[in-house]
Amino acid sequence: MLAFFPQAAGGQTGRRAFLSRIRRLVGNHPEAVGIAGIFAALTVILFPFLVRVPDRKAELRHAREISQNLTAIMALALEKEGRFADIQLKAMVQNVEDPITWTLPENIRNRLLFGINPDESYLDGKFIIDSTGRIIVASKDVHEIGTEATVSDQDYFLVHRNNPSVGLFVSHPFRSAVNETKPSIALTRRINKPDGSFGGIALLRLRLEVVQRLFDRLNNDADGGVAIVLADGTVLARNPYSDAEVGSSIADLAVFPQIAANASGSVIGAGSKGVQRQITYRHVPGLPLIAIVAPTTDSILAEWREGVLYAESVAIAFGVVLGSGSWLLAHTLRDKLRAQDELVRMAATDPLTKLSNRRALELQLKQEWQRARRERKVVSIQFIDIDRFKLFNDFYGHAAGDEVIAKVAQCIAPEAARSSDIAARYGGEEFIVVLPGTGYEGAVQVAESIRKRVQDLNIAHQGSQTGVVTVSIGCATGLPADGEDSDRLLASADEQLYRAKSSGRNQVQSIVLPEIKPEQGVLSPLKRDKPGDCLRYP
Asked: Which of 326, 535, 322 is nearest to 437 (CA)?
């Protein structure tokens, strides 16, 4: 079917190749699984927080919108109260400035000046004050104060005396003479004489409870967050109520200049206790008052943080499991890889000599032969055989024979120490050494070193003419030609081994195949690295 869809077939082949590369990468580098698991765990841990970062901004935005609505309601209520008080003050000023008012009987005059209001429970009194600051007329509720009291040193008196254009003035909080336990503010307007000079003030003493009652139905956090302040930063009321803070100032806050300069807005900054707040404010039209709602950012973000904490706790738990599981899998894969490598090594290793076995020899020789052919380098091959080994076995036994084979292998292995060298047990008491990149003279010196190492073992051998175990070695050197395999070179080395045995054993016989010429660099020496090593040749 895929034959009709070559693109699909190619795509599947590409996917299979990609998956195969991934499997090889994981198989060869099991620690990559652990590292990938750590990255995955970090992603799992960070993801809930990153996803909920926009929610944090949304929580602050929602709280700001609520605060804006609340400040608008507060400003509207204060504007209404201020207009109502100002209407009364204007009427009082108008009546005081009318000469007819002072010709009326006292009870009628007072009724005309102060009127009858449906709710004056938050008023400490209404007063007419002359140009010297002396109270000349007071509402009947506070008539017992007497008329000797003076307010000539009060801010609300001085401001009107010094500035004819002030209009409605709201004073700083003070303790009323009528009710010393509750703070009050004065709302005043200037009274002019017929000639326009200062004639005194009309005054309403208003308990701050009327402002505080705006907060009665607010469910505010314990750190506060709602306040009414004068334009200069003086606190008139706050929720929750604090008698100590009424009359204090917030003008020293870093954000207050911005609050004072703009009609409305919102800013995040430190409050009076150094707690970070989202401060939303609105100036009251017609009055020197500012409505402020300033919940702490901690209270705004409490629910968001709780959600993030819960999500992060779950994510961290999953992340720890994922990371731990990844490294557990990585260690398992590493152990499996080591076991596989050990199996491969065992499959390619002769168990008695620890050298490569014949199957591994064939694979390695093929690879090295192809490399030498590509790089135009010579290859030397040595056949090594233990002299009169059958007689040794017959006289000393097979266990001793196996021990001799293992010791001879220990003499061969150090001479084939390069990564490209191959030392293998060919079968029985025969060995093969392949020396890629080693020329004739180097190969002969390696062979002589092996022969001497074996003889120096001084292993007794009654069947040998030397009385000790020895080896015979045949060596052949050749340059791989295109299209030619290693069989001819192996056969030549085998022939040289036969010559060595025929010539009396315990010797090295070698040959250079006719195609190898000295000018090709076969005989140029290359010094080996460690003492006692023979010369190698390219």
From this structure: 535
